[in-house]
Amino acid sequence: MFSKAAGLLDLAPGLEEKIRVCNSTYTVRFGVKLRGKIQTFVGYRSVHSDHSEPVKGGIRFSMGVNQDEVEALAALMSYKCALVEVPYGGSKGGLTINPNDWDVDELERITRRFAFELIKRDLINPSQNVPAPDMGTGEREMAWIADQYKRMKTTDINASACVTGKPLNKGGIRGRTEATGRGVQYALREYFRHPDDVKAAGLSGALRGKRVIVQGLGNVGYHAAKFLTEEDKCPIVAVIERGGAVMREDGLDIEALRAHLNEHGTVAGFEGADRFEENGALVLEEDCDILIPAAIEAVITRENAARIKAPLIIEAANGPVTAGADEILLQAGKVVIPDMYANAGGVTVSYFEWVKNLSRIRFGRMQRRQEESHNQILIDELERMTGQKFTEEFKQQYTQGADELALVRSGLDDTMRGAYQQMHEVWRSNDKVDDLRTAAYLISIRRIADSYAALGL
Ligand code: NAD
What we know:
Blueprint: H1 2-6, H2 15-20, E1 24-34, E2 37-49, E3 55-62, H3 67-83, E4 89-96, H4 104-119, E5 129-133, H5 139-152, H6 179-191, H7 195-200, E6 212-215, H8 219-231, E7 236-241, E8 244-247, H9 254-264, E9 275-277, E10 290-293, E11 312-314, H10 323-331, E12 335-337, H11 339-342, H12 345-359, H13 368-386, H14 392-399, H15 404-429, H16 436-455
Parallel strand pairs: 3-4, 3-5, 6-7, 6-10, 10-11, 11-12
Antiparallel strand pairs: 1-2, 2-4, 7-8, 8-9
Helix pairs in contact: 3-16, 4-5, 6-8, 6-12, 6-15, 12-15, 15-16
Bound molecules: nicotinamide-adenine-dinucleotide.
Nicotinamide-adenine-dinucleotide (NAD) is lined by residues 133-136, 180, 215-221, 240-242, 280, 294-296, 316-318, 343, 346.
């Protein structure tokens, strides 16, 4: 996918290769004494490109973690950050572990030890390398990592900026947990503001009411499904998860399904469904308007791509469509909104969190009340001049100053809209660009190349 786009650019000799390869990957094998013996774990932290520092990328806990995967995901982070104009290079980390095999105390010891190994090599550092949550990790793990960093670098005033996705009471930011799913919603809203693009998928009309299938009801999939169903009135007609897939033509109750999944560890047995399919992967091929793979990579491959019915696929997960499948989908007239854009909401709000940590002040704290009193003056004067009264509801909405959550959402929406508009422009104005993914790569590779050029490389 990278080469397809890079071939369309007139890059300086050798620069394509420099951008493509991963700068470095650190592999660590460490032991933790647990359950009466030393258990050895394998972890990675890969830096793809440090044209802009710090480098940024999540830490994943999964049995599937290996060097190739971490490097591919680190590369994706470089392109993602460049595309949404977040001033970071790309990185990624992972631990080959099934978090469910260990209890919370054990997991804390393992995470802290892994963090120790990375911190002592500056592979976690607020000015050099800033991790975030990914599959199998969340704010709990980020809080342990931040605390480990503080214990080792006791005089670093920027310590809490060493990792993002932390809990609120540990320097996190409102709206981070939901950010990636929220970004998927904003991406879809922007897509549906471009009738030509909607038509390219053979769809018509607005986002409202479109039938959606979601794979993975974890952090990203749950929030995307929740916002799309609650706010855009899109029925979630199927959810594919561990243990199979559940379907309901008039839309699943996402809150109830998530509660069931949390309690039972599977969607099987969920009473609010009218159909159940044990082989979840088959449901990717069911009829719907929008397919949202939000679980793992390589779920749409050469093998099943031709059978995918959804005209629009938005890659909420990283790499759910393989390069071979991408070609087949393109030939079949499907539109794929690529991962590098679609799930960039997470890193965007991580960036806001990092800025908040460095400035040590909550967004909106200085101006919120000032904004409110300013708006109140206008309301009072208009009421005095006209002798009429605004409704209480309007007054409340209008006078309200922006708090942190409102500002985060506004910054995220602006980022998602802006990046889509740039991709749209490239897609529509260049004959050689036949899809949004190539457009996204063109923009981000160009930005990284320009950054290297400015550095004199
Ligand atoms: P998560 O661990 O919270 O959720 C993943 C969900 O997918 C789990 O509920 C799991 O049961 C389910 N799942 C796993 N394998 C499955 C399969 N074969 N079929 C169906 N369901 C399956 O992870 P997450 O944070 O939601 O991340 C999901 C994807 O989004 C990953 O690709 C990740 O790299 C990407 N992503 C996450 C973020 C973020 O902020 N969390 C940001 C950008 C990209």
